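Input sequence (283 aa), recorded before submission:
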Amino acid sequence: SPNKIGEYLGENKEPNLTVLRKFVELFEFQKMDIVTALRAFLGKFRLPGEAQKIDRMMEEFAVVYCQTNAAVYSKSDTCYVLAFSIIMLNTSLHNPSVKDKLTADQFVKMNNGINDGGDLPPQLLIDAYHSIKNVPFEIPEDDSMDFTITFYNPDKRGYLVKEGGKHKSWKKRYFVLTDNCLYYFVKEADSEPKGIVPLENLKVIECKDRKFTFEIKSEEKFIKSAKTDSGGKMVSGNHECYRIQAKDQEEMTAWVESIRKSISKDPFYSQMQARKKNAMCKQ
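Predicted structure, token format:
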């Protein structure tokens, strides 16, 4: 399946690393613009969720693409940064939850100086922008994905009491912590979650105003999340925070520690900052 291919190619061990290199080398990137190359590359699998795996896969893409397009790009870090910028652009333009859409001028400016200290041709960046704006990346479907597999071996699970987002009533919910996400169900036997909270760029703290209660917060106004409405449709959540109560201090501490370990930073951010710094430095 596309998910399994992505997971395999992202592993930091042999023979996976050799297979990844050979896989990327199968693509004929000569005279292919970077958006077309990314469409071909990302159309064969689903990117895994772990930042380190994404980094390895995009590193190989950048090295091979840069080698076959050396007349345009000074070094592979330039291709790496631009490739991530394009992926982020795709999210910005086509994710309904992103309110402030990047403009073509902003996209050009955010990539200033990434070509060994110099700028890439503006028209190259403008063409990339409009290509993504007109046609988003197609993500391969994966028929093997289901919640049974997702929740088979969670980091933590159990009943807790959650405060409602709108009516502020407290209700017992069954929580499952796995794959850097916190899922909650009305009851344990349910096959699909009532809500999903991706644990990215969040923080968890103990509450002082209610016993055995902790709070999950974001630096943004609202936490990016999803929930099932009364009609069974999955919609965006509107929580400024999640307040959750355990049965005692020991249980609360265990959940807080587990959630803190699961909280991840933006998978693109640290790699992008390091690569961009390197790409902007002249050799």
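Checked by second reader. The first strand starts at residue 156 and ends at 163.
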